[in-house]
C-alpha cells in the first residue's frame, strides 16, 4: 500500500486497554504531595482515607487497598471459599481467563460457568449450583463482573444483578462483585456504586482502568471479611509501605475522572460507527451492544496478523480470540484519535 510508510510514522494510538493511561501532571502533583506512613503498620493516612472513601461509596464496612484487580479477586475467592469448592462465574470471566489459574493455586477452587455470553440469569445460576451431595464440590461463591470485560464492557441491568445475588444468598452462596469497571457501569446506567454493590458480600473497584490512576484497586466488605483479606494480602506479598503516594493518585482519580467516563463511552461508539462506515468486508461490530468503553471487533480473518498490521499503521489493539479484536477507549484518546483509529484498523484488514 503506497500510504504505508506515511502511516507507519503516524502518531501511535493505543486502544489495547484503558490500563495504558499515564498519570496527568495534576495527578502526579497530588501523588508528590501525599502524606505517607508505613501501611504494613497501618500508618499511612492517605491509604486509610482512600479505603474509607471507597468503602463508603460501595456501602461496605471496610476497604483494603491492593496492588491489582487480580489480587482483589483472589483475596475475595480465598476469603469466601474453602479448597475443593466451586465458584460460579459468567462465561469469559476475568478470573478464568486472565489470572493465570490463581483460583486453583491459591484458593484451590474450580469454576462453574453460568449461562452464555458473560451475563446470566437466575435460572442459569440455579443450573450451575451443584446439589449438596457428598461427592460434588461445594458451590460456595458467585463472582460477577460489572462491566463484563470479554462480553465487550456490558453493563448488568441492576434488576438482574439484584435477582441473581439474592438467589445466590438464598441458596447459601457468598457473592463477589468484580467491579474493575464499576464506574463505567454507573455512568452508563445512571446508577450509583452503592446501589450496584448493595446486594454483594464483597466488591472491588479498580483505580487503574478508566479512572486513570497508575496502580491500585480497593477490595471492600465486612470487617470480618476484610480482616481475613488483610492476612491473605500479606501472605501474597501485597503488604506495601509508603503507598499513600499511589493511594493519592486513586483519590485524585475518584474526584476528577468519574464523570468523564461518558466521553470514553461516546468515543467507543464513534469508533465502532466509523469502523462500520468504512465498510471493510472483513470486520463487523455489533454497535448496539456497546454499553461502555470496550469494542469487540469480529473478523473473518485471523486476528493476530491484523493486530500486527495495525501496529505497523500506528494502532495498538489486542486479539481477544482467534478472530476477534478488542479496542478500549480511555482518557488519553479523544474523538479525533478514535476516528483515525477506525481508519487504521479498517486499513489493517486490507481495506483502504
Ligand atoms: N483486565 C485487563 C486484562 O487483564 C485483560 C484489561 O486490559 O482489561 N477484572 C476485570 C474485569 C478486568 O478487566 C481486569 C483487568 C481485572 C479484573 C484485573 O485487574 P489488574 O490488571 O489490575 O490485575
Walk me through what this model shows:
The protein is α/β, with parallel strands linked by helices and 352 residues long. The protein has two domains: 13-23 and 260-348, Alpha-Beta Complex (Aspartate Aminotransferase, domain 1), CATH 3.90.1150; 34-256, 3-Layer(aba) Sandwich (Aspartate Aminotransferase, domain 2). It is built from 15 helices and 13 strands. The chain has helices at 4-8, 25-33, 45-58, 69-80, 94-97, 102-107, 122-128, 158-170, 182-189, 193-197, 223-235, 244-256, 261-277, 303-312, 335-348; strands at 13-14, 62-66, 86-90, 110-114, 139-145, 174-179, 202-206, 217-221, 283-284, 294-299, 315-316, 318-321, 324-328. The protein has a seven-stranded mixed sheet, with helices on both faces. The chain has a four-stranded antiparallel sheet with strand order 9-10-13-12. α8 (158-170) links the parallel β5 and β6 (174-179). α2 crosses α12, α3 packs parallel to α12 (244-256) and α14 (303-312) crosses α15. The N and C termini lie close together (9 Å). Ligand TLP binds at residues 17, 19, 68-70, 73, 94, 98, 145, 149, 178, 180, 206, 208, 217. Residues 17, 19, 68-70, 73, 94, 98, 145, 149, 178, 180, 206, 208, 217 line the site of ligand TLP.
Q: Which residues form runs of ≥5 with pLDDT under 50?
A: 1-8
Distance between the termini: 9 Å
What portion of residues belong to β-strands? 15-25%
Secondary-structure element pattern, one letter each = HEHHEHEHHEHEHEHHEEHHHEEHEEEH
Kindly report the spatial arrangement of strands forming the biggest sheet: 2-8-7-6-5-3-4
Helix content: 40-55%
Tally the beta strands.
13
Number of domain modules: 2
The CATH level-2 architecture of the largest domain is identified as: 3-Layer(aba) Sandwich
Helical stretch tally: 15
Under CATH, the homologous superfamily of the largest domain reads Type I PLP-dependent aspartate aminotransferase-like (Major domain)
Rounded average pLDDT: 96
- Secondary structure class reads alpha/beta
- Can you summarize the main beta sheet? 7 strands, mixed
CATH-defined topology of the largest domain: Aspartate Aminotransferase, domain 2
The radius of gyration computed from the alpha-carbon positions, rounded to a whole number of angstroms, is 21 Å
* Distinct small-molecule ligands in the complex: ligand TLP
Principal-axis shape equals: globular
